[in-house]
């Protein structure tokens, strides 16, 4: 029986294994002008013609800012024990400088209390892509000062919430921030400058290290710090072997080696030099980036297969055209355990978008998504059985939401959101996930 056929109910899960759901502030909160919040780069980006596929924005999104108590109650009904959410930087520190905004941090204060009331552990992400626009105007992530501004912001949030939040993630998916935002221009801020993107990648990692160091000065032994990376396997036929090496280097090893070993891979530096790109590394940067972390968040969606003609994708595919490769999650978790030993892992995002078809009541019988989740939970169990130190699995996402440059077309939620009425209706996948959680517990 292979990983995708394994029955998760028969798996042996580690003690206190976390079962969670994940969201991000910009994608669900709405209320973009409420209570002193200022613009992020994504607010600005959505105003560009053609930047978002359906010309939408996140001004309303899922109205989570107004409907938070009901959303937390919904999580409790699902039986999750952990909620991974992000804090909106321009909501708690408008314009990215100065003191904390009491109204902005007050929302997260209430959220944390509500979660704890329901027995759900808050897993806080400090940065999920919503850089204050004023900091982008000053240079953004390619500019070194942004890393220091991020550490200041992290300290403000930590001071306010660390008495109740024990797990702190600094940056979500620095590869996406740097590559999509500064090289490819398909995410905010929409720049197309590869050298700037690589400077951004370095400063994102530096900001992570500075933030962890700053928070640790006031931390207790119960606090845990980490970062979340989007990772995946890269496979190739012999004709594309070097292309696969480069892709794995820039997408995976660049971040992992710096965070764990305090160095960038030599072959990646050589590849960058061939493109006349030099990273803006100053004395002390690499030890700061490699400050010890307590957990690595792993966001996994699919593996990539390359041929001499380019990337190839074989069925089955999700509604995003992404291949369904649960075996790749097992392989990735085992690779991380083998090549970066001693680093506890949590699958912090895993999910899929499919063309949901609600019935007249709004219910979605999303059998494909339910099967996707079951297969990837089984893949996680298989990795654990083979020695991977995996301590949690979080579904992306709790709610249908604003899917960045795709707008409101793709739906990743296990709970349907009717954007006209804001009604929440759990899908079949939500019920299946709840069953998987129940079956894992004694």
From TrEMBL:
The active site is at 173 (proton donor), 349 (nucleophile). Transmembrane segments: none annotated. One of its GO terms (molecular function) is beta-glucosidase activity. It catalyses: Hydrolysis of terminal, non-reducing beta-D-glucosyl residues with release of beta-D-glucose. Its EC number is 3.2.1.21. Substrate binds at residues 27, 128, 172, 301, 396, 403-404. InterPro entries: GH (IPR017853), GH_1_N_CS (IPR033132), Glyco_hydro_1 (IPR001360), Glyco_hydro_1_beta-glucosidase (IPR017736). Pfam families: Glyco_hydro_1. Gene3D superfamilies: Glycosidases. SUPFAM superfamilies: (Trans)glycosidases (SSF51445). One of its GO terms (biological process) is cellulose catabolic process. The keyword Membrane does not apply. The keyword Hydrolase applies. One of its GO terms (cellular component) is cytosol. Keywords: Carbohydrate metabolism, Cellulose degradation, Glycosidase, Hydrolase, Polysaccharide degradation. Belongs to the glycosyl hydrolase 1 family. This is Beta-glucosidase. It comes from Catellatospora methionotrophica. The lineage of its organism: Bacteria, Bacillati, Actinomycetota, Actinomycetes, Micromonosporales.
């Amino acid at each position: 029986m292979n990983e995708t056929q394994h029955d998760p109910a028969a798996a042996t899960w580690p003690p206190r294994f976390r079962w969670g759901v994940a969201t991000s502030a910009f994608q669900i909160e709405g209320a973009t002008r409420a209570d002193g919040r200022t613009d992020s780069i994504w607010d600005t980006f959505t105003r560009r013609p053609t930047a978002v596929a359906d010309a939408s924005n996140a001004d309303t999104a899922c109205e989570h800012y107004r409907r938070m108590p009901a959303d937390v109650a919904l999580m409790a009904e699902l039986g999750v024990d952990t909620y991974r959410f992000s804090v909106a930087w321009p909501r708690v520190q408008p314009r990215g400088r100065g003191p904390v905004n009491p109204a902005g941090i007050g929302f997260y204060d209430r959220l944390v209390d509500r979660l704890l009331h329901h027995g759900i552990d808050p897993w806080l992400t400090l940065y999920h892509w919503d850089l204050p626009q004023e900091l982008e105007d000053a240079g953004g992530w390619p500019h070194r000062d942004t890393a220091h501004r991020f550490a200041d912001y992290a300290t403000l949030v930590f001071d306010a919430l660390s008495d109740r939040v024990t797990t702190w993630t600094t940056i979500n998916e620095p590869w996406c921030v740097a590559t999509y935002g500064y090289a490819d221009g398909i995410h905010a801020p929409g720049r197309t400058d590869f050298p700037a993107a690589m400077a951004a990648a370095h400063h994102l990692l530096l900001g992570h290290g500075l933030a962890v160091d700053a928070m640790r000065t006031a931390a207790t032994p119960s606090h845990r710090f980490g970062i979340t990376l989007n990772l995946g396997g890269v496979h190739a036929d012999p004709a594309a072997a070097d292309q696969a090496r480069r892709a794995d280097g820039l997408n995976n090893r660049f971040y992992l080696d710096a965070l764990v070993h305090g160095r960038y891979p030599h072959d990646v530096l050589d590849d960058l030099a061939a493109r006349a790109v030099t990273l803006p590394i100053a004395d002390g940067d690499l030890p700061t980036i490699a400050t010890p972390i307590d957990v690595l968040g792993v966001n996994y969606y699919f593996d990539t297969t390359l041929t001499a003609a380019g990337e190839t994708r074989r069925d089955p595919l999700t509604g995003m055209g992404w291949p369904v490769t649960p075996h790749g999650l097992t392989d990735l978790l085992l690779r991380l355990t083998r090549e970066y030993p001693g680093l506890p892992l949590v699958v912090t995002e895993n999910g899929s978008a499919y063309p949901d078809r609600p019935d007249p009541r709004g219910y979605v019988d999303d059998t494909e998504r339910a099967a996707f989740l079951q297969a990837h939970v089984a893949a996680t169990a298989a990795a654990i059985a083979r020695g991977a130190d995996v301590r949690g699995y979080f579904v992306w996402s709790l709610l249908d939401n604003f899917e960045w440059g795709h707008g409101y077309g793709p739906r990743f939620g296990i709970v349907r959101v009717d954007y006209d009425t804001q009604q929440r209706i759990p899908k079949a996948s939500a019920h299946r996930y709840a069953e998987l959680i129940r079956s894992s517990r004694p």
